Amino acid sequence: MDVALIKWKIKQNLEKLLIPDKTKVFFIHIPKSGGTSIDKAIRKHYRHSYSRIEASPSHETAKMLYGIDIQKGETNKLLQFREQLVIYEMFRETQYISGHVTYDQETWEKFHHQYLYVTCLRHPVKRYISNYFYNAFKESEHFKIKEDLATFLDTPRGKEGGYEYIRYMGGISNQIDYEYTSQAAIARAKENLAKLAIVGFLEDLNSFILNFKQYTGTQLRITHRRKNPVKNPDIDEATMKKITKICAPDLELYEYAKNKFTKVLK
Length: 266
Description:
The chain is an alpha/beta fold. The protein has a single domain (about 25-260), classed as P-loop containing nucleotide triphosphate hydrolases (Rossmann fold, 3-Layer(aba) Sandwich). The chain has helices at about 5-20, 35-45, 55-65, 75-90, 105-110, 125-135, 150, 155-160, 165-170, 185-195, 205-215, 235-245, 250-260, and strands at about 25-30, 50-55, 95-100, 115-120, 200. α10 runs parallel beside α13. The chain is globular. It starts with a helix and ends in a 5-residue tail after the last helix.
């Protein structure tokens, strides 16, 4: 037998002995929905086999290799690139994978028997506001918002923030004129969300912890990880109404998720 092949088999056997066999998990981390804290808690139990699809490095890689640039409105192309990175990790049988990655139907069909699909949601209006102030006041230029809130609401990116859940759970469409705010898009997001094993809520993390333990046998300890630079921002009633209207698609999916995945949301 070839010496190189023998060494490879020995290495594979050693890895099986050294790396505990755990339930494989894919965490769809939707921005500003409590995902950073959850990701940290899960990673503590998967130190030997995990992959985090980091936001900024994946963007820089996509920009260098394919010219994809979010500053040019190519967010969907970036999300598709991240999906490809996830597929690679799933073929590697990485036990825990997480990141700002959208649901993809083909990937789910191929791997959902091997991976536990998990996500966490937050009230869309609160998520929208948190996302704005986090990106407006952070030091990094990655996804930084430079407009004031009133101006931002009327920008393409400001409107996109109201259907973030629809895009993440409905999946990326290659149709140029695809409307993520349409009832068809919302229905597709609901259908895909219903396939996930665990859908948690930032407002009720205790239930998320309980469900995760039931599926994996792992007890999570979730602590608050990332703080927003602006606490309790003062937003006038008219602006709040406008944000609520923008978030209508995500609000519909959020209410659907509450009804399906919880009996009572505290």
